[in-house]
Design goal:
Order of helices and strands of chain C: HEEEEEEEEEEEEEEEEEEEEEEEEEEEEH
Radius of gyration of chain C: 44 Å
Distance between the termini of chain C: 102 Å
Shape of chain C: rod-shaped
Number of strands of chain B: 0
Order of helices and strands of chain B: HHHHHHHHHHHHH
Strand content of chain C: over 45%
Largest sheet of chain C: 5 strands, antiparallel
Chains: A alpha/beta (311), B mainly alpha (317), C mainly beta (394)
CATH class of the largest domain in chain C: Mainly Beta
Largest interface: B-C, 38 and 38 residues
Oligomer: heterotrimer
Number of helices of chain C: 2
Radius of gyration of chain B: 22 Å
Helix content of chain C: 10-25%
Helix content of chain B: over 70%
């Protein structure tokens, strides 16, 4: 596995405002990396620096071994980028828009047509390719954005907020396409503020907060680190002292009473059998017992909760 | 730190795309229709008078462009009015329009520098103007041949082409200005209004302001004829700060071969001069060269301004 | 003017017509007191005549103080072979009636025989009235006739002038014989010379003219010289010929010669170009088309204010006839001259001969402005390229 994107101490200031602070990032070939964080946390700035569209204040970046600052043309030739809320020339058709991109990339027109057809087919826009983009829905535009990325046959795809503004169904489809990119061997860097939505496709994620990458790793590893346990068990039961009843179970890290009769249990292993036993033994009625995977939202919320506490 | 690769990579693709946009846009269609109508109207009116006097004027085809038939102004006067409008229409939303449509970051993510985007858009505007002007001139000449039955001579063609170049330079000024405003202002409407305001300022108010300013200066100045000459030259200088004046002087000398001087002329300079002689094109060109180069330099400087402003902008809207 | 001339001419004609009538009226017959009788006379009783020529003599018969009577005419002494007849009013007569103190005119005609030899023949004519007789001896000498004599004289035989002018000689042609003559005129001249004869006070050219016996006519000979006649003395002679008679007069023309300058360019094109504020050499040719050398030729010009025109050389010592000299005129239009055409007058002067030519100068303004303009654009482009290198490639 070779390193595709690497940054060291990458920093960007807009006057007194810090957009990105000392970012160290390392992406391996073939992985899907999620750059996660709320709006304004520095994700887009990071992406622009990786593409050479913005100059870092300090630090450096390497994309496919090239310095985006020195050789942005080479970087941009090999990296596909889909900006957030991607826009097209509305009066042109999808195909014409793609042709323009192909020409900007210096792809010969005959090969360009081939690639356009192929890319449009891959995102399912073949039938509407000759309609003006003005008639496209938000989801179709996003898919057209992906078409543009595919058209370049990049080694790396950088997608900025790819699912923003999409309805759940469209978002789901789109995420499936991103998985398709990975299947083609393309390294994907995607940014999103919808943590939960993208966690399914990301091999690794990095959590941004106020310009800093605060957490990095696979979703499981993160939840283990932040939440202390990887297993979350939701317990619905009647009876008193549920919290006290459950906290004695070995392997359980924490029990949170969410509302009367509903508890959330964080545990280091699957201890649903023991929980059921205890509830029943305690004279309660077990109404529901389910194992949940930790979400990034939880991780994020927990992390900043703790950070605030520490402060 | 030097970046690698030509700043003009992809220029051709942008140029072609922008030109295709310009030539097919409804905005340009409207303006072209307007220009076409005025051209046909003025030429028809001009040839109406010239038909009676064919053969009396050695530069018949230049007369078509310059002669006005009440109530219609001359073709040239119309051009002085319509070309700035067209140029502004071509460029007022060049950059901020891309921001508005959120296409700029997508285009810049392609292997090009943004230098090419700006230059491509500027050149596309210039070429579009050039094509429009050339077509217009051919139309006028064709109409002239139909109506007058006389073929234009080589020197008339040469002067006509020089006129097109001068008009292109003048249009270039407004194109570059509109381009600059499209970089500076985020809203296309704002940049359009600003460009039209500047144009109106020079077309209508500059002469008035220059006259007022001149009156204040000349009221305090006393002296002999030398002072008067200096004042006259100063007045001319004020007037020439406007691209409109530069253009009208250029066109005057290019389309009237008997114009031998622009500005005040001393009696002594006219001594021994043979009146009514026609200047060769090279001399007419030399006469308007300062004006012409002034226009071109203005274009380049405005473009440089737009360039600097654009380069310093952040890509993210 | 022509009308005046006609008036004068008609006046002249009237005079000449009235003159004979006066001459006839004037001699009133003089009576010779004391003499009574008949008179027979002729003005020239002894004559020399050409052989074979019929001689007609005027006769006058006068009655001096006698009663009117008829006078019979007869040949008192004849010469064999000769035929003598009296003629009156065109008819042959033998008698004539004469009143007291009156006279009658008639003529006698003497026809010599063919082959009459030279020598003197004597005749005697007789007039027989009533008791009176008059006799008239005649002597005709044959073969020794006086040839007709013409005389031609020039009033001023030597004329002097420039080759361009024409020379007019006043000639007098005199018929010194007793016969009227038709005189033809001719001239011997150097090649290219032309002469025209006109009678004095007339305008018509003639090649011959009649001159009455003993009279003279004035005529003008106008000599026109060819264009390129060299300076110097040219001799010519005019001859008047009438039969055997001829007269000749020698005339001399002294062509003084004079310079005739003209100023032009080698190609003859009187227009050129010049740049404002810059020296432009123009080749100028001063030609002497005259017949005498032009000395001390000054070349000058009249130019617009602020212009300078220098000639090199500005003075030419001498230009031979048919010769030319090259002068370089360095024209520098005013640096403030506006483009277009100007008139420049070039002049060459030598003594009283001068020539000028209008030279049309098309002034081109300096391309300096053009270069400045290019520099301005180059600077502007330089600024752009600086800007590109400073802000470019983002």
């Amino acid at each position: 596995m070779s390193t595709v994107i690497e940054t060291q101490g990458l920093t960007k200031h807009y006057g007194p405002i810090v957009a990105v602070e000392s970012l160290n990032l390392c992406l391996q070939a073939g992985e899907v990396f999620g750059l996660l964080g709320p709006n304004g946390s520095g994700k887009t700035t990071t992406i622009l620096m990786l593409l050479g569209l913005t100059e870092p204040t300090a630090g450096w970046a390497r994309v496919l071994g090239e310095d985006p600052l020195r050789n942005p043309l080479e970087v941009k030739r090999r990296v596909g980028y889909m900006p957030d809320s991607v826009g097209f020339y509305d009066e042109l058709t999808a195909r014409e828009n793609m042709r323009y991109t192909a020409r900007l990339n210096g792809i010969p027109s005959s090969e360009g047509e081939e690639r356009i057809d192929e890319a449009l087919a891959a995102v399912g826009l073949s039938e509407v390719a000759d309609r003006p983009v003005a008639t496209y829905s938000r989801g179709m535009r996003q898919r057209l954005g992906l078409t543009e990325v595919l058209l370049k046959r990049p080694q790396v795809a950088i997608l900025d907020e790819p699912t923003m503004g999409l309805d759940p169904e469209a978002a789901h489809e789109f995420l499936a396409m991103i998985r398709g990119l990975k299947a083609r061997g393309i390294t994907v860097l995607l940014s999103s503020h919808l943590l939960q939505q993208v966690q399914a496709v990301c091999d690794r994620v990095g959590l941004f907060h106020k310009g800093r990458l605060v957490l990095e790793g696979s979703v499981d590893a993160l939840s283990e680190r932040v939440l202390g346990g990887a297993y979350r068990i939701a317990v619905q039961a009647t009876g008193d002292g549920l919290e006290r009843l459950l906290s004695g179970i070995p392997g359980i890290v924490r029990v949170v009473q969410e509302r009367p009769g509903t508890c959330r249990v964080e545990a280091q292993q699957d201890c649903r059998a023991e929980v059921a036993r205890r509830v029943v033994a305690g004279g309660g009625q077990l109404l529901g017992l389910s194992l949940e995977r930790a979400t990034l939202d939880d991780v994020y919320a927990r992390y900043f909760q703790e950070a605030r506490h520490e402060a | 730190m030097k970046r690698r690769g030509s700043p003009w990579t992809g220029l051709g693709a942008i140029l072609l795309k922008e030109m295709a946009d310009h030539l097919s846009s409804i905005r340009m269609r409207l303006l072209e229709g307007l220009i076409l109508l005025t051209a046909i109207g003025t030429v028809f009116a001009a040839t109406q008078t010239l038909r009676q006097t064919i053969g009396e004027d050695p530069f018949l085809y230049l007369k078509i462009l310059t002669s006005a038939q009440d109530p219609l102004p001359s073709f040239v006067a119309f051009m002085g009015f319509l070309i700035p409008l067209t140029a502004i229409a071509l460029a007022f939303d060049a950059i901020n329009g891309e921001y508005m449509r959120r296409t700029l970051s997508r285009v810049l993510a392609q292997p090009i520098y943004r230098d090419a985007v700006l230059l491509g858009k500027f050149l596309a505007g210039i070429f579009t103007l050039g094509i429009t002007l050339l077509a217009l001139w051919l139309l006028v000449t064709g109409l002239g041949i139909l109506r007058l039955g006389v073929l234009p001579e080589g020197r008339e063609v040469a002067r006509g082409l020089a006129f097109i170049l001068a008009t292109l330079a003048y249009g270039g000024v407004w194109l570059a200005l509109a381009l600059l405003f499209s970089v500076v202002f985020r809203q296309p409407a704002t940049s359009a209004m600003a460009a039209i305001a500047v144009w109106l300022f020079f077309a209508v108010f500059w002469e008035i302001l220059a006259g007022l300013f001149f009156n204040i200066i000349s009221a305090t100045a006393t002296g002999g004829p030398e002072t008067e000459l200096a004042l006259a030259n100063f007045r001319l200088f004020l007037s020439r700060l406007s691209p409109n004046t530069l253009y009208s002087e250029t066109v005057l000398a290019l389309l009237n071969p008997d114009v031998r001087a622009l500005g005040p002329v001393l009696i002594t300079q006219l001594e021994g001069a043979v009146r009514g002689t026609l200047l060769p094109l090279s001399q007419s060109l030399l006469l308007v060269w300062p004006q012409f180069t002034g226009l071109i330099a203005t274009v380049i400087m405005l473009f440089a301004g737009a360039y600097v402003a654009f380069q310093r902008q952040e890509v993210r809207a | 003017m022509p009308r005046m001339l006609i008036l004068i001419l008609t006046a002249g004609l009237a005079l000449s017509m009235s003159a004979p009538s006066i001459a006839v009226a004037a001699p009133s017959p003089e009576s010779t007191p004391g003499y009574r009788g008949l008179g027979l006379s002729t003005p020239y009783p002894s004559q020399t005549v050409r052989a074979g020529e019929t001689v007609t003599l005027a006769l006058t018969v006068k009655n001096y103080g006698l009663a009117p009577q008829v006078v019979t005419l007869a040949v008192a002494k004849g010469v064999p072979g000769w035929k003598v007849s009296f003629l009156g009013a065109g008819r042959t007569v033998t008698a004539v009636a004469v009143g007291t103190d009156q006279e009658a005119s008639l003529s006698v005609r003497l026809d010599p025989p063919s082959g009459a030899r030279a020598g003197t023949y004597r005749f005697a004519l007789a007039a027989q009235g009533q008791g009176v007789t008059a006799e008239l001896p005649l002597a005709l000498t044959l073969g020794q006739v006086q040839p007709g004599r013409l005389e031609l004289q020039a009033e001023l035989p030597v004329l002097r002038g420039p080759g361009t002018s024409s020379f007019r000689y006043r000639l007098t042609l005199k018929n010194e014989s007793e016969k009227d003559m038709l005189v033809s005129l001719e001239a011997q001249m150097p090649k290219g010379f032309q002469v025209a004869f006109t009678p004095a006070f007339a305008s018509q050219q003639v090649t011959s003219l009649p001159v009455k016996a003993g009279e003279s006519r004035d005529l003008d000979a106008e000599v026109t010289l060819p264009q390129d006649v060299p300076a110097g003395t040219h001799a010519l002679s005019v001859r008047a010929i009438s039969g055997e008679a001829r007269a000749e007069v020698k005339l001399t023309i002294e062509v003084t010669g004079r310079p005739d300058l003209s100023i032009t360019t080698p190609e003859g094109r009187l227009s050129g170009r010049a740049y404002a504020g810059r020296d432009t050499p123009i080749k100028v040719v001063v030609k002497n088309r005259g017949s005498a050398p032009a000395r001390g030729v000054e070349v000058s010009s009249y130019e617009p204010t602020g212009w300078s025109v220098k000639f090199d050389p500005s003075r030419i010592e001498e230009i031979a006839p048919k010769g030319e000299a090259q002068v370089t005129a360095t024209v520098r239009p005013s640096s403030k001259a506006i483009a277009g055409d100007y008139m420049l007058t070039l002049r060459a002067t030598a003594g009283d001969s001068s020539s000028s030519a209008d030279f049309r100068v098309t002034v081109f303004t300096s391309t300096l402005w053009g270069i400045v303009g290019v520099i301005v654009i180059a600077v502007a482009l330089g600024v752009v390229s600086l800007v590109v290198s400073r802000y470019g490639r983002r």
